[in-house]
Amino acid sequence: MAIEKEKVKEALNKVRPMLQQDGGDVELVDVNEKSGVVTVRLTGACKGCPMSQMTLKSGIERYLKSEVEGVTAVEKED
Fold first, then answer.
1. Would the pTM of this model clear 0.70, i.e. be above it?
2. What is the tens place of the pLDDT at every residue in 40-58?
3. Is 27 helix (H, G, I), strand (E, B) or coil?
């Protein structure tokens, strides 16, 4: 089943305000429809934050998996 890129964008938009409160943000880079991997770019304070990997996996990835059918993982672009 193909992942709908629009649904991924909508879900990320729900996460963004929490990141923006801390001076960071997230941008969608790519959605691999075959593997279900979503690639994002962390910006602002999130970019260099030592907790960014935890934010990515425990926050963004878990939320996208629950909101968008077919998402298997979220990775960050370096």
1. yes
2. 999 999 988 888 888 999 8
3. strand
In the DSSP assignment, the letter for residue 70 is T
* DSSP-assigned beta bridge partners for residue 44: 24
* Third-level CATH fold of 5-76: GMP Synthetase; Chain A, domain 3 (3.30.300)
Give the C-alpha separation, 47 to 63, whole Å.
19
Please report, for residues 18, 35, 50, 74, 78, the alpha-carbon distance to residue 14 in angstroms, rounded to integers and kept in the order given: 8, 23, 23, 16, 23
- Domain ranges in the chain are 5-76
Q: What is the layout of strands, in order, in the sheet containing 24-31?
A: 24-31, 37-44, 73-76
